């Protein structure tokens, strides 16, 4: 490298300064070494050095100790933290496990539920299919019956019950309809086939709509009078009766004008023959009349005298719109017109006739037999009448007679008079009856005492017999009254 003069001089100076510095340093070191040597020669200094060394060692030892201690402390803490962590982790695991179990359980339950629902659905489907099959079968049998085959008549006649385990509904039995409908807690029995058809709510008229005005609380039916109702009914009757007559002879056609919804505009059609009713059912059920679909149901025979409100016929029904007996519309032509009091009279007459024939056929002794029962109503061990057994009460004729006898003798006699021969003069009859009655009583007494002496049990009841005699000596009327009281209790 070529250097110019200036640079050269600079370099020379630099090296010179360096040499000087080095020389000075050498001197200084030498001086220091000398001083050190001098100092080392001093025993105090040596002592000082030794002490310092010792101190330094102690310090380092202490430091070491401290470090060990801290380390141990750290280890302790670490251990603690580790255990804490482990605990936490265990807890977490447990929680997770629980959660999983819970989830599994829920899933299992859900699956089970689903299975059950599936099974229920399948069962429902099966039942539905069964029902449809039965229905089809029934329809087939019904169709066969309509063309004159009577093979399935017993099956077709079978009643369907809404609640077979309950008592029959009184109202349904009486009028063929019940205000509770299918929700009724009693049993509604609907025959599969019968002469009587019911078309619920078939006849409709605004006058029968029992609705309260929301603001005025007035009946909306007020504006309609009976004339309007009957005009409408006549039209309806003429329209409908021909259709129903086309299936066969009818013996009754009654339409209700009640306000209660389950009796409003109900049409009862009674055929003379079941097959005609079946034909009408087949044709009319589900058909439309004045854009209203008809529902036709069979009903068990109705006792009209018990179902129709007789007071309404005389326009004296107190219950008005809430009456539960049938209020019938009067049919416009004389056909199938229902006269409640005529019906009632004829029903009573036939009842009376049957009663009379029963009484004529039986003599008193016939009616009273068996003797055991007879002993119950008047003969007894005490002034009180023995309670008759329930079985003996169940026969209607004997119970009726017994009731008569428990009354005062006059009334009993008079009732008998009426039933046997009312044409005889009453007083003669009465005296004759009295004497006859006395004779009979004596005879009975004899018979009774005979039967007593025969039975071994009776021997020990001698005292009782005495008592009985005594009691009989009392006025018979008071004892009878007493017994009556007891029986009513
Ligand atoms: Zn009911
Ligand atoms: Zn009434």
TrEMBL record:
<feature type="compositionally biased region" description="Basic residues">
    <location>
        <begin position="421"/>
        <end position="435"/>
    </location>
</feature>
<dbReference type="InterPro" id="IPR000571">
    <property type="entry name" value="Znf_CCCH"/>
</dbReference>
<feature type="region of interest" description="Disordered">
    <location>
        <begin position="376"/>
        <end position="489"/>
    </location>
</feature>
<dbReference type="GO" id="GO:0046872">
    <property type="term" value="F:metal ion binding"/>
</dbReference>
<feature type="compositionally biased region" description="Basic residues">
    <location>
        <begin position="446"/>
        <end position="489"/>
    </location>
</feature>
<dbReference type="GO" id="GO:0089701">
    <property type="term" value="C:U2AF complex"/>
</dbReference>
<feature type="compositionally biased region" description="Basic and acidic residues">
    <location>
        <begin position="436"/>
        <end position="445"/>
    </location>
</feature>
<feature type="coiled-coil region">
    <location>
        <begin position="21"/>
        <end position="137"/>
    </location>
</feature>
<dbReference type="InterPro" id="IPR009145">
    <property type="entry name" value="U2AF_small"/>
</dbReference>
<dbReference type="InterPro" id="IPR000504">
    <property type="entry name" value="RRM_dom"/>
</dbReference>
<dbReference type="InterPro" id="IPR035979">
    <property type="entry name" value="RBD_domain_sf"/>
</dbReference>
<feature type="compositionally biased region" description="Basic and acidic residues">
    <location>
        <begin position="407"/>
        <end position="416"/>
    </location>
</feature>
<keyword id="KW-0175">Coiled coil</keyword>
<dbReference type="GO" id="GO:0000398">
    <property type="term" value="P:mRNA splicing, via spliceosome"/>
</dbReference>
<dbReference type="GO" id="GO:0003723">
    <property type="term" value="F:RNA binding"/>
</dbReference>
<dbReference type="Pfam" id="PF00076">
    <property type="entry name" value="RRM_1"/>
</dbReference>
<protein>
    <submittedName>
        <fullName>U2 snrnp auxiliary factor, small subunit</fullName>
    </submittedName>
</protein>
<dbReference type="InterPro" id="IPR012677">
    <property type="entry name" value="Nucleotide-bd_a/b_plait_sf"/>
</dbReference>
